[in-house]
Write a structure and sequence with these properties.
The protein is of the alpha+beta class. The protein has helices at about 110-120, 130-155, 160-170, 175-200, 205-230, 245-275, 285-310, 315-340, 345-375, 380-390, 425-440, and strands spanning about 35, 395-410, 410-420, 445-455. Helix content is about 50%, strand content about 5%. A hairpin with a 2-residue loop joins strand 2 (about 395-410) and strand 3 (about 410-420). Helix 4 (about 175-200) runs antiparallel to helix 7 (about 285-310). Keywords: Membrane, Transmembrane, Transmembrane helix, Transport.
Amino acid sequence: MSSEPDLHRAISLKPIPWPRSPSPGRPATASHETTHGQARPSHPPTHTPIGKGDGNSTAVETSASTTEDPVARNVATRESEGDVERQSPPQYTSENDPYRLASAIKPTHEIEKIRANTSRKRDGFGPITLNKKAGQARRLEKFYEAQNENIQRLLKPVDDHRLEAKEEAGANHMKFKIAVMGSFAANIILAILQLYAAASSKSLSLFTTMADSLFDPLSNLALIMSSRAVKRVDPRKFPSGKARIETAGNIFFCFLMICVSVVIIVESIREFAEHSGSETNNFYLPSVIAVCIAFATKFSLFLYCWALRNKYSQVRILWEDHRNDLFINGFGVLTSVGGSKLKWWLDPMGALILSVLIIFLWSRTATSEFQLLIGVTADTPTLQLITYISMTHSPSIRQIDTVRAYHSGPRLIVEVDIVMDPDDSLRSTHDVAEELQIKLESLPDVERAYVHVDYETDHAPEHFLKKEL
């Protein structure tokens, strides 16, 4: 499989001041095609038969069983409103862990033992450099931690994935709301301060920081308006929804920022060519104070989001934005003051450097947004989760032929080809496939899921890339 797409700069995956509804959470976080022709184990785990058309998932507990064949369109999915966090470790059985993935989880005390055996060793060349074996042990420790997290994510029921995404979106977490709402309100105030500072001082460096700060609240506002447009959709005119309007709007904003930066670059070059005044520019203290206030505010938000960056993926995106803004504001005020106190050319030079940096950053963002719009592949953990859910959905599924997951704007389209017994009835085959479709569409960020049924895997690929008409 090719390397995972870098979508962490995509604006479509950034938080908005309040959770989207009805779609929970975002993640990045997309697939052209990933084929899984692996058959189920030759001796699959035994399951208690419920009915010929049983579509019960081995990954999600069901409330009761029936003697009749289930029909997916009439089955009420379990809506657990309790807390996702469990008070005790889950007990895995052959029903919810048919492939015994839990047996591969590395115990915590063994991981801690790896760290303890090497953390105090030195290489003999000083008190700072660690032994090479200590670095290898640390990488081994990270590997087992990532493996444990991946296994627990695969074994987590689909309902828990959905509820966890709702909580991450900020439905019940005050700290998350403070981080998102506080950043949004601060961005509005700081944009006004930056605009005042740039207009009053006429410093090109401060104009550059102002242009960057204006986009933060505007991007949140654009996401709010687009999310409302997505909810008010005419299914006859837009049968697949309007979620891609977010991505299209974000691409427009990216190019707007690039154009503004190009204008500042042109003005900086013109300042270099036509300057004929004194050796320094005029110093305007209120402008410097305004930018320093913006820097201090961003630094406070940076520290607050830093404490939550590993708990909420959306807060981590905010933390990265505040980190970038700290550098831009700090460098901008330094070059602006340098142009007033040292040499005049420091100001246009700072504006030139910052504009090039902003063009680079927003070009990366535009690339990520274009990938979402074109249909980039899902990341590997998402493909693994979809594959595992499909494999453990029902004992009637013999093999998984193909799994595809790719972006359609900020959300995912999923296609799964399953192999079933050719002697099964049409009703039982339909019920298993439809229940799997409903389950996959319950995952966060999945816009639509298509489940195709086959009876063998020896056929040629059913789809091909249309290189020419």
